[in-house]
Design brief:
The N and C termini lie far apart (about 50 Å). Helix content is about 45%, strand content about 15%. It has 15 helices and 8 strands. The chain has 2 domains: about 110 residues, de novo design (two linked rop proteins) (Up-down Bundle); about 210 residues, Alpha/Beta hydrolase fold, catalytic domain (Rossmann fold), CATH 3.40.50.1820. It is an alpha/beta fold.
Length: about 375
């Protein structure tokens, strides 16, 4: 069938589905999705555009098909092929899971995603270690991707997620390129993120310097990491987390806000109004924020979110700082990027605006992720290599 839409907007009438699809497409350069498979899903979803459950059903259907191919290849000892298919199945399960509210169904779909991702990473990336980072009497799950180019104690990036991505994605879309440049990467699910939220019931917190300190101390304890060349980076909502961490954990040698934030509560005041007016036209599901914050409802979430601000905090950042923003970002405004950049006290600070002409103009460069990754990796290399 023919359907309206383009690379950015697969569903012009449904921004939430379009945004999630674009995020999935952004994993294509890393072999973690196949565009032909996504196209099949999109075509089926256009036939079911008025069925909310269609989203997770169609992504899970494709995931199950690809997972069966992976299982068959693994049973026959064709592990490279199995690994490719497991990585794709893991991403499809995760993409479907994002629209399911917390509960048993969401839990089961996530476990399938994690299982496939683990099986894929084991087979395709022998340089990835499965790590537990000690944290407040428990631990945070992470992947440590070693750079095959590193000699001796190497520079390292600690990479946290945002509101709804996960370490299974970031270890690829950032870790692979950083490894090529000689950086190790610790891709970690912090409180309120990925596995830490879903399987360990660890909600987010405003004082993200606490998990960031745990992550720093883990990597600094390794014989293959140079503790004086450790950067912190985080994605999307992580544009709040990483600057907050760098402001208080001074051992980080550089900071990257991959997506700009300043007053996250103010962002959500507008976003909640938009959700109430037309939830299909907002990137985030109505249940996401309370779930991430570990509270029962939006009213309580909004109150808790008042502490998620960099006012009086960004001024404490003195390490080299990079703020990234795309000119077509529909989740945050240029004003927010300018606000964060202006407040940071670092003598070495950069505000990078990605334009439509060069690519990466959407939120966190999801329309052309390699453009964003290359710029960030080059910026870090100039300061830490």
């Amino acid at each position: 069938m023919f359907y309206l839409g383009n690379w950015i907007h697969s569903f012009p009438q449904h921004f939430q589905w379009s945004n999630a699809t674009l995020i999935a497409k952004g994993m294509a350069p890393y072999g973690a999705v196949a565009l032909g498979e996504i196209d099949r899903i999109v075509r089926r979803l256009h036939d079911r555009i008025n069925e909310p459950q269609a989203w997770w059903e169609e992504w899970a259907t494709e995931a199950e098909r690809v997972e069966r191919v992976a299982d068959e290849a693994a049973a026959q000892g064709r592990h490279a092929t199995a690994g490719n298919n497991y990585l794709r199945a893991g991403n499809y399960y995760y993409t479907g899971e994002r629209m399911l509210p917390p509960g048993g169904q969401k839990h089961e779909l996530y476990k399938k995603s994690l299982r496939c991702s683990h099986e894929g990473l084991k087979r395709r990336y022998s340089n990835v270690e499965f790590i537990e980072v000690p944290y407040e009497g428990t631990s945070l799950p992470a992947y440590f991707m070693k750079s095959p180019l590193a000699r001796g104690r190497a520079p390292t990036v600690v990479l946290f997620d945002g509101l709804d991505n996960c370490k299974e994605m970031s270890v690829l879309f950032a870790g692979v390129e950083l490894a090529f440049r000689g950086f190790h990467t610790l891709a970690i699910d912090g409180p309120g993120q990925g596995e830490a939220l879903r399987l360990r019931n660890l909600p987010s917190r405003y004082d993200y310097e606490v998990p960031a300190k745990a992550a720093y101390e883990y990597v600094a304890s390794r014989a293959d990491v140079d503790p004086k060349r450790v950067a912190i980076m985080a994605y999307s909502m992580g544009g709040y987390y990483a600057p907050r961490a760098a402001a208080f954990e001074k051992r980080y040698a550089a900071c990257v806000a991959w997506g700009a934030h300043y007053d996250y509560h103010a962002v959500w005041v507008k976003r909640w109004e938009a959700i109430q007016a037309n939830p299909d036209q907002v990137a985030t599901s109505h249940f996401q924020l309370p779930w991430v914050l570990g509270v029962p409802d939006m009213e309580t979430a909004m109150e808790k979110l008042k502490r998620f601000t960099l006012a009086g905090v960004a001024e404490r950042i003195t390490c080299p700082m990079l703020v990234c923003w795309g000119e077509h970002d529909k989740l945050t405004t240029r004003e927010i990027a300018d606000q964060l950049y202006s407040a940071v006290s670092s003598r070495d600070k950069t505000l990078k605006i990605f334009t439509e002409e060069e690519g990466g103009a959407e939120h966190c460069q999801v329309d052309n992720r390699p453009v964003g990754t290359d710029y960030i990796a080059d910026w870090l290399s100039a300061r830490l290599m």
